[in-house]
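Pilot study result, target chain (385 residues):
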Amino acid sequence: MSGRERKSRQRQSEYFFDYSLLFIVLFLIGFGLVMIYSGSSYEANLEYGDAAYYFKKQLFSSVLGLGVMFFMALIPYHFWERFAVIGYIVSAVLILLVLTPLGRESHGARRWLYVGMSVQPAEIAKLGMILFLASFICKMGRKIRTLKGYVTVLAIPMPICVMVWKITDNLSSAIIIFGIAALMLFVSSPDYKKFIVTGLVGIAGAAAVVYFIVNAASADSLSFRGERVLAWLDPEAYASGKGFQTLQALYAIGSGGVFGKGLGQSMQKLGFLPEAQNDMIFSIICEELGLFGAFAIILMFMLLLWRFMVIANNATDLFGALLVVGVLGHIAIQVILNIAVVTNTIPNTGISLPFISYGGSSVMFLLIEIGLVLSVARGIRLKDL
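Predicted structure:
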């Protein structure tokens, strides 16, 4: 055997590591840290006397998350399959613990647990749902194609979704969890008619809810979510209430123009735009970096999703592919919902922009999910690409 043939065989047996995915994630985290500092320095200096307060906390969570990500990438992903059921149960238990003294309230919502550090059970539930459904769908096999299998998979996330919605008052996370399940079911089932019917029923239901809210006898009788729908339809009419944040975000987007005012030059972050470093950080990106910066960051997310699809298509088994699809669904749905909220395409709901918005538990569990994807990628041999 010649030296060239020997090297060729060695290369075919090498494992694949997706450096492109790693670079995109590192870029998004670095960009997020810059924008968090830019968007929060004014408020942090007023409240805590430290302009880098939010930046430091996010940096700590990001570094810790990156460490866990690399650790997860080194462990064969099939190791976690045995914890699928445990992950589902633990998710439910942690959500219930929000009702105990361990629960913490912030901005009028009780969504966090304090266990030495603040953790949001909804983020754990997203990861647990991905792991459980990937294992469950693999075990169902061809039964997934039947109507019973279809209904069963969609019913599995419902208890967790209802608990996240009602106990932690977090409808957006409940929607994301259900969306993850729907996407994982979609890629594993060849019959698309059921999804078309379900989608049409969902759209009709949403339209009926909006119609009911618009034609309600009195706005005072509506819940705060009903008021958000009215503010979405006519934000100027609710400029001093539910429409205030949306209007300020739109002002920020409009004033940024094509190339923006320049990094750090936002006016809306100076006490005008609530949650500038969190849910509304995309509007600060538009104001400071313009449409050019907004499109650039959207392009980075599209590249991230493309790498997920490459890895899923080349995964060595269905379990690995479904893990990647679950992570893809989580990030894609969250990005779409966040940008839609900021641009007033859908009613306002609290949802962060992955890797960029401020939130320690969010970035940590996102990086854990990236670690799972990298682990699946390591199972791909170079000859398979």
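One observation from the pilot: Residues 5-13 have pLDDT under 50 and may be disordered. A full batch analysis is planned for the follow-on phase.
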